[in-house]
TrEMBL record:
Pfam families: TerD
All copies of domain TerD, residue ranges: 1-190
Protein name: TerD family protein
Signal peptide: none
InterPro entries found in the cross-reference section: Stress/Tellurium_Resist, TerD
Protein's organism: Spirulina subsalsa FACHB-351
Top-level taxon of origin: Bacteria
Length: 191
């Protein structure tokens, strides 16, 4: 049974899925039927942060040009870039092996940005049905889901959710925070 989170809500993964060892993080979206004359390319990215809420290194920024975390076990893996977002379900996905995440990683932040949004005149007001969901890799069951419900008419970057350690257990937080300035705004925040 999947739990539906609201913006700002937090949940312990140990309480809702005891013994969870790895998660498939699916991110999805649809483009509204507005014609900007250019195709939409949304990108999922992951920021691996230390306890200071900053990127541990450039290699701890996981995206379409850097698909795996730098630790020897590659505990975080981006499954590749979807250039159109067409079709149902997850548009981009990340696998996180919770057992192998290095101890220096205090938080894992999942984001979506619009590629070349400014040049293409695009924003999240033209995107609908955005979501992030966690699936147990072993059972293939959806554990939780957060659906974006607000209208983000000027934002070009979104922080969807965060996985973080608290008192020795992994927790998920639904963020739903929008930014202007695309990916660069997020890089500035976490560097």
């Amino acid at each position: 049974m999947s739990i539906s989170l609201k913006k700002g809500q937090r949940v312990s993964l140990e309480k809702i899925a005891p013994g969870l060892i790895a998660v498939f993080v699916g991110l999805g979206w649809d483009v509204k039927r507005t014609d900007t004359g250019k195709s939409f390319d949304l990108d999922a990215s992951v920021f691996l942060l230390g306890s200071n809420e900053k990127l541990l290194s450039d290699q701890h920024f996981i995206f379409y040009n850097n698909l795996t975390s730098p630790d020897p076990d590659q505990s975080v893996k981006h499954m590749g870039d979807n250039l159109t977002g067409a079709g149902e379900g997850d548009d981009e996905a990340i696998i996180v092996d919770l057992r192998k995440v290095p101890p220096e990683v205090a938080k894992i932040v999942f984001t979506i940005t619009i590629y070349e949004a400014e040049e293409r005149g695009q924003n999240f007001g033209q995107v609908e049905n955005g979501f992030v969901r966690l699936v147990d890799v072993q059972t293939k069951q959806e554990i939780l889901r957060y659906d974006l419900s607000e209208d983000y008419s000027i934002e070009t970057a979104m922080i969807m959710g965060e996985l973080y350690l608290k008192d020795g257990e992994w927790r998920m937080s639904a963020i739903g925070e929008g930014y202007q300035g695309g990916l660069q705004a997020l890089l500035d925040r976490y560097n």
